[in-house]
Amino acid sequence: MRKEQIAIIALALWFTLVSISMLLSQWVDLEVFFVLCLLGFLVITQLIQPSYIQPGYLKYFKYLIAAGIVIFGIIVAKKVIEILAA
Fold this sequence. Notes:
Blueprint: H1 3-24, H2 30-48, H3 56-85
C-alpha cells in the first residue's frame, strides 16, 4: 500500500472516530468537529510527508491546510468576540 492510500484510510478512520464519539456523547458541534478533523489532517499530513522531496499530491494539501487555518482563525475570532460581548 502506498503512503497516500494509508493516509486516506487513516483520515477516514479519524473522521469516523470523531463523529462517533460526538454522537455517543450527544454533543454535536460543527466547529469542534472541524477543529478536531483539521488537527487529524495536519498530523497525518506531517506523518506522510517525505523528508527531502515533495510529491505532487502534497502541493494541494498545502492549499487545504491554508484554507483550514483561515477557517480556524475565523472560528477563534468569533469565540473571542462572544466572550468579550458577554
